[in-house]
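#lab-general

N.A. 3:47 PM
ok so I finally got the sequence cleaned up, no stray characters, all 844 residues accounted for. can someone with queue access submit it? mine expired

B.Y. 3:52 PM
send it over

N.A. 3:53 PM
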Amino acid sequence: MKKEKIFSRRNKILMLKSLMGLSIVIFILMLLRNDVNEINFIELGDIIKNQKVSVVMGFTVLGLAALAVTTLYDLVLCKELGIDIGKIKTFKVSWIANTTNNFIGAGGVAAGGLRTAFYKKEDVSSEDSFKMTFVIWLTTLTGLSGLILINSKFAYTLNNKLFFILSLIIGLYIPFYLFIDKIPYIKNKCEGKIIPSVSIKIKMKMIAVAITEWLVAGLFFAMIIKYFVPEVTLSEGIGVFCLGITVSICSFIPAGIGSFDLTCIYGFKLLGISSPGILSGILFFRIFYYIIPWLLSMAALVVEFLHSKTLKKNKKNLAFLNEFGIKALGALTLFCGALLLVTSTVPMLLDRFKIVHQFLSTPILQFSQVTITGIGFILIILSKGIMDKVKSAYRATQVLLIVGAVLTLLKGFNIEEAIFLSLIAFLLYLAKDSFYREKSSMKIKTAILSFVTILFISLFYLAIYKVINNGQPLLGYNSLIEDFMYSPKAIFTYLFILFIIVFMIQFLSLKKLELKMPDNEDLEELKKFLEKYEGNSKTHLLFLKDKNFFYAMDKKVLIAFKTYDDKMIALGDPIGDKSLFKEGISEFRKFADKYHMTPVFYEINEENLPIYHENGFNFFKLGEEAFVQLEGFNLNGKKKADLRYIKNRIERGLFEFEMLYPPFDKEILEKTKEISDKWLGDRKEKGYSLGWFNEEYINLAPLGIVKYEGEIIAFGTIMPNYDNKTVGIDLMRLIPNPPNGTMDAVFYSFINWAKEQGYKEFNLGMAPLSNVGVNKFSKVKERMGRYVFNYGNKIYSFKGLRRYKEKFDPTWHGRYLAYPASSKLPSTLVDLAKLVAESPNSDK
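B.Y. 4:20 PM
back already:
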């Protein structure tokens, strides 16, 4: 309950943050409504396009230098903590982590994840990498807090109480946010681990680095603004930058998109400065401090990945670089899509457009424009397929990048853009062997995001169209460009139709993986397999024909599984040659990965956990399974008083037990079916990990019946383990309102029969959530399971089932769920519950 409350509270906080960010942007837009309406996009475009190459190169170098300051975090901390992986590698790790975090703006999450992964690759201990990530994140925000507090004086000089109060609140709130809310939350997530601490000396050095980083970023911002608007002083530029950072933090918008930019425009307006150069400067700052460094990081990742493939480095490094290299290619594909969307909407360079227009007709140019818009949109969607290593996405992206490059030349002779798209296509080609998956996954949120993207593009296009049709100066080519552009209605209609087409293609590609269900021939093969290898407590359920068979290691290992949603859920441990289980599980993971499915193992034995751990699985304890040791089984003791009473009733003939062997006659099957139907009532049969009434299946094993006064009142089917040592009950059904002690009679009779047959153990089945999360150091998710076990008896008799089985004095063995570390446990448990609850087809 406590966890649910925390989850609910954090969802509410997330909603409040989103609303706050939206409110702040709307509020600033209201303050700037007249200024926004007066923005001349054409003049702005001319300012940007007419910059000399030397100026662009200069800003590029300065931006990279300013961003390089952020690597001091890692360089200083590695030196102080004695982590020696080399200064060049440390610089590279820090650069990639910080540029990615700058671009995404995920509050340090992206940087932390990348930093941890890269240091792990360099064999830095998880404790040290966690310490570095935590200290850098902590000192970055602490340094920013100090800078904002210092800058509150600047807000005061503007005679703007709002910015002054905001600066004070944010400057003081950051330490409160860290030490009162976030650090306790991290402690909880660390499940009792001690939050890392460092000396005061290191803290002071790191805070100094943080303040330096923000000051350098502010100085770079101020220098760009001063270049475009000379009357702005550097101190004023840094002051406005800090105001923008303050509001962007307050808005909770990733990378402060919109909130930072609008605040800076408003800040300069308070200084009496309103110029197109301000917006140009802000745009240049975004390009040279955010976009270009990030593009270099992605390119570096891709190049290193391709270089490692060429040199065939060790598998560990290659797998690591493959993961990040493909993610980088996906990110670059997404950037290409966004680039095409923007450049297809914004008016092109007029001199180039005039040249192209002399050779190509307006319809051809319009076709190029609208097709480039479509290609940009599709590339954004395909970028996920690239990240997921899907073959079809790779092929489509290659074609679209080449077509996009050609069309950018036709539309406006955009050589730079064509070269960039061709380069990304070439990098993809070099990595073609990494795309092996047959399909990708698509969630509802992806479709919603795509639709929002369309809406944004259309609105952006509308803004440009409005500027042109308002008669703003366009260097004599206003009518030419106006004739070239489609109306917003036409563009929106085109994009909407495109969205529907792409969505349908994606939807059709998401059809369930078609796998052949076992037939009688497959079951005969299974029987021969079981003559050679031992089975387990779940093996008999394979004869229900509702699970797929995956043979691994040259048919020496068998894994039975069923697909559900995006998961391949294996029932129990593999069977076959136990020495090959680890390799067999790895082969199954690769098979699932090929189709972008998540492999899950349900109800595995605790003694096999190490081989799953080596294959990258996490675990959740599902409960314990009870086994009666038949050799020493007796009815002595107080707990077995009920069983002694039942034994006496059986000996007096009140209960009769008989074990029948297949094939069964029609009368017995009809009677047991009648009892089964009555036992079910309005309920439906469950499946997957449970047997159900199916005549063909029931005829595969002995069937025990219990009679009372000559009438069959209960029956059970034998569940063999195919190891000649263990046996249990599979399907057990009783008539409604049976005589007292009927269930005890069934279990006692079956146990007694198994003992007479020479079996060593009798399987009483699972006690769900039994003995889960009992240790105070257990994981939070398992402590939640303990809570359900203790207080969920209104839903399911967890305690009662455990108590009942205890009277047979069994030994208990833990049963676990194994799931990949990258998957989410809650959704996995929900899918499992749905799978088991699915009503099987009893006619199969």
